[in-house]
Amino acid sequence: MCIGVPMKVLESDEFSALCESEGERLRVSTLLVGPQPPGAHVLVHLGSAVRVLDDHEAALISSALAGLGAAMGGQGFERHFADLIDREPQLPDHLKRN
Asked: pTM above 0.85?
C-alpha cells in the first residue's frame, strides 16, 4: 500500500521544499506542485509533493493516519475518525446513479 503524508512547508526554493510532519523534517521535490510558501501543506509521497492541501484536509489526513497507527497498535482509534462517526457512508458524485 502506498500512503501520502501531509507535511508543512518550512522553507522552499524553485524545485524543493524543506517540510515537517510529526517532528520529522524532509526535503521534498516540488516539481509536481510548484514552489510553495512557508506554512503551506503538501501531500508527500516517495519524496515528492504530489498535491497542495488546505489546512482542514491536512488535519483530516493526519488524524486518519494517527487512527490507523492506533488501530494497528491495539489502541482506541475512534476519536481519530470523528468526521465519520454517526453518519452514513456517501458515494462520490461520479458513482451515483441519476
From this structure: no
